[in-house]
Structure formats: C-alpha cells, structure tokens
Specification:
about 60 residues; mainly beta; six-stranded mixed β-sheet; 6 strands; about 70% strand; globular
C-alpha cells in the first residue's frame, strides 16, 4: 500500500501536515484530507500546488 504525505510549501522549506494520506477530495470550502489512522480533516485556505508520486508527496501552498 502506498500512502502519500501532505506538506505545505514555505519559503524556508516544507512543513509536514499529514502522513499516511489515502485520499484528498476537493471541496468548495477547501480540501478534505483522509488518512489511514486519523480519519478525515478539512483544510481551508490552501491549494494543491503539485504532486510528486515518486517521492510520495502532495505539496500545498496558501490560496
């Protein structure tokens, strides 16, 4: 099983937000991030910047 990590891109680098991410749903009010162990959480004020499948990372940036 391949789960992704979600990180926030910042000027100083990356901030890890979630590990073991199994799905992301784009909602009108934000992004619903579901993890294997913690369930689902909605993130507002962020957008998906890019996805690196080889590294297993989804990069977010402030909206």
């Amino acid at each position: 099983m391949c789960q992704m990590r979600v990180v926030m891109e910042k000027d100083s680098g990356e901030e890890l937000l979630f590990e073991n991410v199994t799905s992301i749903d784009v909602l009108e009010k934000g992004l619903a991030v579901t993890t294997l162990f913690e369930g689902s959480q909605v993130i507002t004020g962020s957008v998906i910047r890019r996805m690196d499948f080889l590294a297993g990372k989804i990069f977010l940036s402030p909206a």
